[in-house]
Amino acid sequence: MSLPIDTLITLLKDGLLESLYMTIVSTIIAYVIGIPLGIIVFVTDTGGILKNKPVNFIFGVIINMIRSVPFLILLVAMLPVTRAIVGTTIGSTATIVPLVAAAAPFVARMVESSLKEVSPGVIEAAKAMGASPIQIITRVLLPEAKPSLTVGFTIAISTILGYSAMAGFVGGGGLGAIAINYGYYRYKTDIMLITVALLIVIVQIFQTVGMFAANKIDKRTNN
Amino acid sequence: MIKLEHVSKEFETRGKKKIDAVNDVSLTINSGEIFGIIGFSGAGKSTLVRCINLLEHPTKGKVFLNDVELTAASAKELRQERRSIGMIFQQFNLLAQKTCIDNITFPLIISGVPKKEAIERAKELLELVDLSDKAKAYPEQLSGGQKQRVAIARALATYPEVLLCDEATSALDPITTRSILALLKKINEELRVTIVVITHEMRVVEQICDRVAVMSDGFIKEVGTVKDIFLNPKSDTARKLILPERNRIEKGKRTDILRLAFDGQSSYEPIISELTLESGACVNILGANTEDIGGKAYGQMLIELPEDKEAVKKIKAFLDKKQIHYEEGGNADVTTD
Ligand SMILES: Nc1ncnc2c1ncn2[C@@H]1O[C@H](COP(=O)(O)OP(=O)(O)O)[C@@H](O)[C@H]1O
Ligand SMILES: [Mg+2]
């Protein structure tokens, strides 16, 4: 090993915690923004319970615009905004800003697609029972879409972890920064490989836990 | 109780083409009756029934429930009124992620009934539909018939005055269909719920409806008691619905055919053998569409008459004596709408 083992472990442990911190906080904030966005886009669509073409169009355009910007470019373009919000552009907390910006529209689309899976007949039945649009959203759409939303969450959190590693290039913390600082700038390939392996393991854990949870939640499967 | 006045519904499709799904329909459905709306696929039945609870807003015309004009109600008033109009569907439309009991309490909870009361009511309803042991089961774990029973219980939770059934038995096998229809009949008789039944199957109408409207191309072709329509269909559509395609007689081709309509006679088999004995001639059964419901015969049969004019007379006299309605098959397709 190119580093004393104790130092290496501390380094990796801190990197791991930073990565998890960025990923989890960004995912939560991205969902806080993305869920309402996804719901708005879904219900205002043609045939939706609150059909509204202009609103649907405007939100659709905003989401697509942000989504079409490559993450690395968004990361750089967001620097002034990040500085304004966090006060610095370096470190894990600063990375959360571009991560959320990139992830929220992505989450909105995931939520929208999960809601689209809810049977239109069930929505109709709720309407026929006298449910209001808010009741349909909170008591029909979200609960019925829960398994699919869980799968979406698993994909989203893994994607955000990947983004957070990329942020290492522009001064973000975490495992991505370690891989870049040691592996890329100092040619310590072994350290880079270890961080990559760690990232893979985390994604695997997210996937396994997420899929298990989705299956467990889904009452359409007999278990 | 339900009154439709000149209701029309027009859909605009992608190619800007307009479809008149419902055309100037006026109907009155009386309190306490089971009213059928029958027609082939695409006739506009679903659209019409969805106009009753305004899932579909009519392009023209008015819809009344008792004396309230639903077509003039605000969104909030409409939600209130919908609580007195239950609805069940071909595909059941249960909440897949909720247990039976939670499905049944759903309409109560959303109308602000306290949870405890809602559960009490749901238990009552589960008993009514004979599914008390399935309270904690999820829809996926139930058979089609059981799902429809849960849907019926759910539709009745808010004590509706009307129950709309859109092809409620079309996804079910004949035996299950019969038990669901029997349940609807019981609900109509015991709870005095007015029921509107949409179907493309004559036997559904025969089994439970008091009156029926025949629908085709968005128009109501005729309305009458089930007996009237069954014995004396006036519209082409009604004839086609009564007689399945393969049994129909081509216009003007045969005059030697009789259509016998069984309307609850004890059974049709002895009648045919007696008829043969009585007339002394063989009759050929060309097609039959009969069903034994509770030991009584319903449905119809096409028979080919013998050449012998005397024998034909005897056959007709016998049928008159037994009060079996018949008509000359050759007329089957002559009458037009
Ligand atoms: N939402 C809709 N948009 C466009 N056309 C529709 C819509 N719903 C029904 N239609 C059309 O209206 C006609 C009647 O349909 P429907 O009421 O479903 O008939 P039925 O229930 O008797 O089979 C059909 O031609 C159908 O294609
Ligand atoms: Mg239909």
Task: Count all strands of chain B and give the number.
Answer: 14
Could you say which small molecules are bound to this protein?
adenosine-5'-diphosphate, magnesium ion
| Main structural class of chain B | alpha/beta
Low-pLDDT residue intervals, each spanning 5 or more residues of chain A: none
- Nearest-angstrom radius of gyration of chain B? 23 Å
What's the short story on this structure?
By secondary structure, chain A is mainly α.
Structure overview:
The complex is a heterodimer of chains A (223) and B (337). By secondary structure, chain A is mainly alpha-helical. Chain A has helices at residues 5-43, 53-68, 71-77, 79-86, 92-116, 120-128, 133-166, 174-184, 189-217. In chain A, helix 5 packs across helix 7, helix 6 runs antiparallel to helix 7 and helix 7 packs antiparallel against helix 9 (189-217). The N and C termini of chain A lie far apart (47 Å). The mean pLDDT of chain A is 92. Chain B is α/β, with parallel strands linked by helices and 337 residues long. Chain B folds into two domains: 2-238, 3-Layer(aba) Sandwich (Rossmann fold); 243-328, ACT domain (Alpha-Beta Plaits, 2-Layer Sandwich), CATH 3.30.70.260. Helices cover 34% and strands 29% of the residues of chain B. Chain B is built from eleven helices and 14 strands. Chain B has helices spanning 45-52, 75-82, 100-110, 115-128, 144-156, 174-191, 202-208, 226-231, 236-242, 269-279, 309-321; strands at residues 2-12, 18-29, 34-39, 60-65, 68-69, 85-89, 162-166, 194-199, 211-216, 219-225, 257-265, 284-293, 296-304, 325-328. In chain B, helix 4 (115-128) packs across helix 5 and helix 10 (269-279) crosses helix 11. The longest helix of chain B has 18 residues, at 174-191. The model of chain B is unreliable at 330-337 (pLDDT under 50). The interface between A and B is medium-sized, with 25 and 32 residues. The complex binds adenosine-5'-diphosphate and magnesium ion (MG). Adenosine-5'-diphosphate is lined by residues 11, 13, 19, 21, 39, 41-47 of chain B.
